[in-house]
Design a protein that fits this description.
There is one protein chain. The chain is α/β, with parallel strands linked by helices. The chain has an eight-stranded mixed sheet, sandwiched between helices. A two-stranded antiparallel sheet has the order 5-6. The longest helix has 21 residues.
């Protein structure tokens, strides 16, 4: 993938009243746009994801994958608030010439979508063949499909919802409380809240996986073990793994961004918002997902006019949308075959 940067030098007004004095978006692309712009695949990434989609969704994107640079122009943008090149809490605030840190303003899903649309216009993209995302990426994709229904021809969303649930918000708040309990939190330092972030990620893993996942992967082989359990070391490992590539300020920001997701805010209802989506849509749920349970995907399916629904069986809970790429690729292939059949019948 090729990395690019887009700089917007004007004031960027945010939904909740804040503003950014300009912003930068880091994005990556594969392939080339064809003459009629009919091959554009736009990917929206999840909370701690980044623009390198061929890395974290390699089963769907790559030279031999269902979405490949020989046939498609693939684009993925690192969201504002994150830490992979787009404007975020560790970026320099041009008004102070110092990093934002805890002064970084609140960002909603709609703000992220507005920034994506700025880039789309800069690239002179008038039509997206397929918009795809899972989890927080699915929230972005849904919001974009609601706010600009004529833009995308196809919409694929996985393990996501139309409004972030009290259950999901409670998980995120518990993680923020863990960060807040770190005595270094709030310092103007890139490493502030690091121990808290490790704890926060440990909490998050409980929502990304489930009882059966841990029973299968973290059970002890020796019945006499009384300390240093596999499950214990796994939790710490996952926390430190995230700390090596992320920071507490971005995690704090984007967990709040996820909580802001509500397709019905400022509109007549969530149901009517979904009903206004024009794209041919595939909704994918993961049967063992406890963070975004399949009831949320079924609700979405009930209210989008032109839609198909697929449930993927997985041991891996919410993380199944990243792990079960072979099953998801099969579901996507069936989705496009079904669409083509409909066209023939018409």
């Amino acid at each position: 993938m090729q990395e690019h940067f887009f700089t917007y030098n004007k004031k960027f007004n945010l939904e909740l009243g804040g503003e950014l004095n300009g912003l930068t978006l880091s994005y990556q692309t594969m392939g080339s746009i064809n003459e009629d712009q009919s091959n554009i695949i736009w990917v929206c990434h999840a909370l701690t994801g980044n623009a390198e989609v061929s890395d974290w969704w390699s089963g769907l994107f790559g030279d031999t994958a269902i979405f490949n640079p020989k046939e498609h122009f693939i684009i993925c943008v690192n969201v504002i608030g994150s830490c992979y090149g787009s404007t975020g809490p560790l970026s320099i605030n041009p008004d102070t010439n110092e990093p934002y840190y805890d002064t970084f303003p609140a960002v909603t899903i709609r703000d992220i979508v507005a920034s994506l649309d700025l880039l789309r216009k800069e690239l002179k993209i008038d039509k997206i063949n397929t918009l795809i995302g899972g989890s927080l990426g699915g929230q972005q994709a849904l919001e974009w499909a609601v706010s600009n229904p004529d833009l995308m021809e196809n919409l694929i969303i996985c393990a996501t919802n139309a409004k972030h649930s009290p259950w999901g918000i409670a998980f995120n708040e518990s993680q923020r409380l863990a960060i807040q309990a770190d005595p270094t939190w709030g310092k103007r330092d890139p490493q502030a809240g690091s121990r808290g972030l490790i704890a926060a990620r440990s909490i998050a893993m409980l929502s990304y996986r489930n009882y059966s996942t841990y029973e299968k992967t973290q059970s002890e082989d020796n019945e006499s073990v009384t300390d240093n359990f596999k499950a214990s070391s796994y939790q710490e490992y996952q926390g430190k793994k995230l700390l090596s590539r992320f920071n507490a300020y971005s995690y704090w920001t984007l967990s709040n961004t996820m909580d802001s997701h509500n397709l019905g805010r400022g509109r007549k209802s969530i149901e009517e918002a979904l009903n206004g989506i024009k794209a041919y849509t595939q909704v994918i749920g993961i049967t063992s997902d406890v963070l975004f349970p399949v009831s949320e995907q079924r609700f979405i399916t009930q209210h989008i006019p032109n839609v198909t629904y697929e449930e993927i069986t997985s041991l891996y809970g919410h993380d199944g949308f990243l792990v079960e790429t072979q099953k998801i690729a099969g579901a996507i292939q069936s989705f496009f075959k079904q669409k083509n059949k409909k066209k023939i019948i018409i």
